[in-house]
Structure formats: structure tokens, C-alpha cells
Amino acid sequence: MNDPLIYARAAHYAATLSVAGAAFFIVFVAEPAFAAAGAPTRLPALLRRRLALLAWIALLLTVVSGAAWLVVVAQSMSDSSWAEVVSEGILWTVLAQTGFGRVWPDRFVLACLLAGMFVPFLSAEGVKSIPIKSVVGALAAGLVGALAWAGHAVGGAGIEGVVHLIADFVHLIAAAAWIGTLLPLALLLAAAGHDPASVAIARVATLRFSTVGIGSVGTLLVTGSINTWYLAGSVSALTETDYGRLLLAKIALFLVIVAIAAVNRLRLTPRLVHDASAAGSAAALRQLRRNTAIEVALGAAIIAVVAVLGTSPPGFEALIHAHHSH
Ligand code: HEM
Q: Domain residues for 41?
């Protein structure tokens, strides 16, 4: 198991899903929830600062971990020393002449454009401009979706190749819209006090989050099944190969998070929304905080599994190999 590559991939997926997730959360959840406060509260200003800090740190980590991933791939492709990777120009060869490398400069440009747009988007007063929100949403979706060109989804032939690439592109955006927005939600729930204005913000935020969540979960299931069809393609590839068993572990983690999200959506959010008593909404808020923290940890576990999956030969290939070696 080539650890540097897996660590670089894990850090990069986590950072990229987090920067896109923070942008989606601000546009679709936080700012609409702040508008529903209904009374003066310090929560929006406090959260805008914390979400801005999260977004900037995640963007910086996206660039640094992306560079690390590139260097690790260049080193493993050339089997040269780390110094030679740069001094011998191996890095430029990987950037210019490999499918993996060619998407990196494009993603770096997207990251720089996003940094520029973050200045007005993450301002202390909050963002109202629809053009700014749309451009940031599109850049964030492009930055995370373009990872499809660095994974197993490239290399397919004909229309099937295009279908697989598009499915993986959408899969990555849905992953950011769900798992990437969990940490911002945890920050919001952690900062929400028990004053009526904060509870009103938490109510709207959990309702909007779970509506976005339902759409993302459905999209992950459909695009994940397409990915599974192209990269495993049979039950035996799922059960008889390391790749397949790892993918089954990922799907099991996914089902656990969906179960927790269902409890949040069907039991705790209605209590937060409808229970007028301070004690009732406080208890619901406490349980939502705990469940969201558990979902963040499970989301991190899924990203760790994905980091390993992409370095293993796909299930269908591993199965053919296993059958030939017997
Ligand atoms: C919380 C839910 C999920 C998250 C956060 C998630 C995230 C990801 C990410 C980041 C990738 C890497 C894509 C790439 O670089 O090309 C990926 C790949 C993949 N996902 Fe998911 N996914 C989720 C759910 C699912 C589900 C439910 C399935 C199956 C039904 C699935 C099947 C796959 C497959 C087969 C791949 C390709 C792995 C590879 O060989 O590189 N995913 N997923």
C-alpha cells in the first residue's frame, strides 16, 4: 500500500469536498437561514467569520495537497528521488503528457479564480449578489467535479466512457453537497444559542440542509451505482476482490450515515421546528449536534476508503487477474 499517495489523496479529497461544501452551504443553507432570524442576533456575524476561515483554510489545503499528490505520482511514475522529480523536470512531463497531470493546471486556475471570488463572497456583511453566488457555486462545482479526470473514470471508450465520466463528475459534486456541508452545519449548530433568533436560524438551516441532503443522497446512490457498474460490474468482483470488499465497506458506511440523517430529518428536525418550549428545542439541538458530529466522522471514514479505492486496480480487473493466476 503506497502510503504517501493515499495520504495525499485523502487530504486532497477532504480539502476539496470541504471548500466546495462550504461554498454550497453558504449559498443554499446559511445565508437563507440568517435571513429568517427575525430578531437581532450575533450568530450570523460569528458564523460568517467561522465559515470564511473554514473556506480559506480548505482552499489553501486543496492547493497544497494537490501539489503533494502530483509530486507523489511523478515520483512513483519515474521511480526517481524526490529532488530529481523537480530538478529533472519529471513534474512537467507528468503535467504535460499524462491524463492525470493535464487536469491539474485547469484545477489550479479554478482554485485561483475561486480565491479571487472569495474576497466579496466571504465578506463580513455576507453575500447578497446572485451573480457572485452563481459564479462561486460554478467554480466550486468545477474544482471538485474535475477530480473525475484524475480517477478511474477516465479511459472508458465511446459513449460508455462519457457516461462514466459524467456520472463520476456529478458523484463528486453530490459528495461535496452532502459530506462537504456537514462540517459547516456542525459549526452552525455548535454556535447556535437558545435565544429565539438563534433557534429560528438553526431551524431553517437544518430544514434546508436536509432538503439539499435528500437530493445529494439520491444523486450519490445513482451515480455511485453507475461507478460500481463500470468498475466492479459483477457480484463476484464485489465479494471476491479487495477493491470490491472495500467498496462494500464504503456503501455500508454510506447506509449508516443515511440512517442517522433519517433520524435527524424525521424525528429531531420536526421537534426543533415544532416544539415551542425552550427545553424541547434545546434537547433537539443537542441531539442534532451530536448526530452531525458522528456524521462528520463517518464522512471522513468514507473519504479514507475512497483514497485507497483509487489506488487499487478496479474490481473487474482484479477479478480477471485473480482468475488468471489460479
Ligand atoms: C457519502 C457518500 C459518498 C461519498 C462522500 C462518495 C465520495 C466519492 C469520491 C470522492 C469518489 C472519488 C471519485 C474520483 O476521484 O473519481 C468516489 C468514487 C466512487 N464511489 Fe462514491 N461516494 C459516496 C457514496 C457512494 C455510493 C453509495 C456508491 C455505490 C452505490 C459509491 C460508489 C463509488 C465508486 C464505485 C467510486 C469509484 C472508486 C474508484 O475506483 O476510484 N459511492 N466516491
A: 4-325
Q: Tens digits of per-residue pLDDT, 103-153?
A: 999 999 999 999 999 999 999 999 999 999 999 999 999 999 999 999 889
- Ligand 1 binding pocket includes 132 (Cβ within 6 Å): no
Instruction: Output the CA 59–ligand 1 centroid distance in Å.
Output: 21
Q: Could you give phi then psi for residue 232, rounded to 5 degrees?
A: -115, -65
For residue 136, the tally of other CB atoms under 10 A from its CB is 25
Q: How many domains is the chain partitioned into structurally?
A: 1
Of ligand 1's atoms, which has the minimum distance to the CA of residue 225?
A: 30
**Burial of 287 by CB count in 10 Å (0-12 exposed, 13-18 middle, 19+ buried)?**
middle
The residue-averaged pLDDT of 34-44 equals 86
Phi then psi for 124, rounded to 5 degrees?
-65, -25
d(CA 167, CA 323): 29
CB 24, CB 184: distance < 8 Å: no
Mutate to test the pocket of ligand 1, among 171, 212, 214 (most ligand atoms within 8 A of CB): 171
SS3 23: helix
Listed in sequence order, the DSSP H helices in the chain are 3-25, 31-34, 43-78, 82-87, 90-97, 99-121, 130-145, 158-191, 196-231, 235-239, 242-263, 269-274, 278-309, 315-325
Predicted model pTM: 0.95
